[in-house]
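Structure first, sequence second, as always.
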């Protein structure tokens, strides 16, 4: 599991290495852990200090999801499919954004927290549930019956 996360982060960093020059940031900053998220927060239109939230467990999942969705939006990718791919396949999506010459950086996006929260909520509803969530829902179903849903 740990090896899987390391390989995923290395692929993500390689993607940032190619994305940053499109946004006018030095490419080497994409390879430095922590600094790449700090710079990514800046190019998507958030405060750079927003990256500090990545240090908090559980919160970092939502912050990272918001950052990669904003990164997709900064490159003009506004569809739900692109946002889904950016969250679920973030390492490969960032690599694709950086390597595909058709992807152009459009600048930082105005962040609407209401829209972003709505989109993250819809993403969590549409994604296939994990085994734990499915089991929790089944427990609620058997405990309260179908009418409580």
């Amino acid at each position: 599991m740990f090896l899987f996360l390391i390989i995923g982060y290395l692929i993500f960093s390689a993607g940032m290495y190619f994305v940053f020059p499109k946004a006018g940031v030095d490419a080497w900053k994409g390879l430095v852990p922590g600094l790449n998220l700090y710079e990514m927060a800046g190019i998507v239109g958030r405060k750079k200090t927003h990256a500090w939230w990545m240090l908090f467990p559980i919160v970092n999942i939502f912050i990272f999801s918001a950052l990669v969705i904003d990164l997709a939006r900064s490159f003009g990718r506004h569809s739900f499919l692109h946002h889904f791919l950016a969250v679920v396949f973030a390492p490969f999506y960032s690599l694709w954004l950086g390597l595909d010459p058709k992807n152009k950086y459009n600048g930082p996006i105005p962040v609407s927290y209401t829209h972003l929260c709505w989109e993250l909520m819809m993403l969590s509803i549409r994604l296939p549930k994990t085994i734990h969530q499915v089991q929790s829902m089944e427990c609620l179903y058997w405990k309260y019956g179908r009418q409580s849903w």
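Margin note: Residues 86 and 93 are 6 Å apart (CA to CA).
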